[in-house]
UniProtKB/TrEMBL annotation:
PROSITE patterns: ROK (PS01125). Its cofactor is Mg(2+). Pfam families: ROK (PF00480). Transmembrane segments: none annotated. Its EC number is 2.7.1.4. The keyword Metal-binding applies. It is an enzyme of class 2 (transferase). The keyword Secreted does not apply. CDD domains: ASKHA_NBD_ROK_BsFRK-like. PANTHER family: FRUCTOKINASE, TRANSCRIPTIONAL REPRESSOR MPRA. Signal peptide: none annotated. InterPro entries: ATPase_NBD, Carb_Metab_Reg_Kinase/Isom, ROK, ROK_cs. This is fructokinase.
């Protein structure tokens, strides 16, 4: 086996940061194995990135860190050739727009830095080690503080003008649903309907306090079904993994959405039977480790 520095027989350890809208996870390990894990709330850029540096610096000084991988919420500039590579763009997260995420960490730690979105990184982890194993065209959806969608084509994350921002598309609404949405940019885009803050606003209480059999979940399941059907039609994904804090803690939501998909697809795709959709649209095999594991993959490739 060859490490990322090219030395036969050696697998280098790297550090990874999953920078989420609510919490940050810092890990040490290598792709496929997390050796150490520290979690703390995502607050201001200075405090959050400072805590990451304080955690990683001793590992770096001990020779345990050969590179760093960052799996970040966004939107964030991921193109290395861009002048603002690693800078946060116009994010709904207060105080983070314009934060120099990659630059601050690279200057403090002095090691190669890889960067991708948290959802692209999670998609890589599920493709390499989890629910999307051997599915080169795969999608990872996180339903949590926001709604993000990572896309792999031929096993590689999709970049372009920026990176996929599927969470901000608008789709058909459930009949009779008058919720205005909670996205500060678009109102009733998918993030404005399905994110944790959106569900709290929709329900008038924390989603965790709403019973799985409460009819209030019906519109949310319809919104998720519309998103899944759109991704099946546009990307022809072999696997769509639905994770994130809300989805992982509300396991009834994905089956409810999946049950609505055949009617939405209208019999158009003969390969998308109800049985097939159970194989295509699945929960993450890595659970809450998908993002941190993806950060290690991104770091190992830096």
């Amino acid at each position: 086996m060859t490490g990322i520095n090219g030395e036969p027989g050696r697998v280098d350890t790297v550090a990874g940061i999953e920078l989420g809208g609510t919490k940050t996870v810092v890990v040490l390990g290598c792709p496929g194995a997390i050796e150490r894990r520290i979690e703390y709330p995502t607050t201001t850029p200075d405090e959050t990135l400072g805590r990451a540096i304080e955690t990683i610096r001793p590992w770096r000084q001990a020779g345990q860190v050969s590179a760093l991988g960052i799996a970040s919420f966004g939107p964030i500039r991921v193109a290395r050739e861009a002048r603002d590579f690693g800078f946060m763009l116009d994010t709904p997260k207060p105080g983070w727009a314009g934060a120099d995420v990659a630059g601050v960490l690279q200057r403090a730690l002095g090691c190669p830095v890889g960067l991708d979105t948290d959802v692209n990184a999670a998609a890589l982890a599920e493709y390499r080690f989890g629910a999307a194993l051997d599915c080169p065209t795969a999608v990872y959806i996180t339903v949590g503080t926001g709604v993000g969608v990572g896309v792999l084509v031929n096993g590689s994350p999709v970049h372009g003008l920026l990176h996929p921002e599927v969470g901000h598309v608008r789709l058909r609404r459930a009949a009779g649903d008058g919720f205005a949405g909670a996205c500060p940019f678009h109102g009733d885009c998918i993030e404005g309907l399905l994110s944790g803050p959106a569900l709290s606003a929709r329900f008038g209480r924390h989603p965790g306090a709403v019973r799985p059999d409460d009819p209030a979940w019906g519109a949310a399941a319809s919104d998720l079904a519309e998103l899944l059907a759109m991704l099946v039609l546009t990307l022809s994904a072999q696997r769509i993994v639905v994770g994130g804090g809300v989805a992982n803690r509300q396991p009834h939501l994905l089956p409810a959405a999946r049950a609505l998909m055949p009617a939405l697809l209208g019999g158009y795709l003969r390969d998308c039977t109800a049985e097939a959709l159970e194989r295509i649209c699945v929960p993450p095999a890595l659970g809450d480790d998908a993002g941190p594991m993806g950060a290690l993959i991104v770091g190992a490739a830096a």
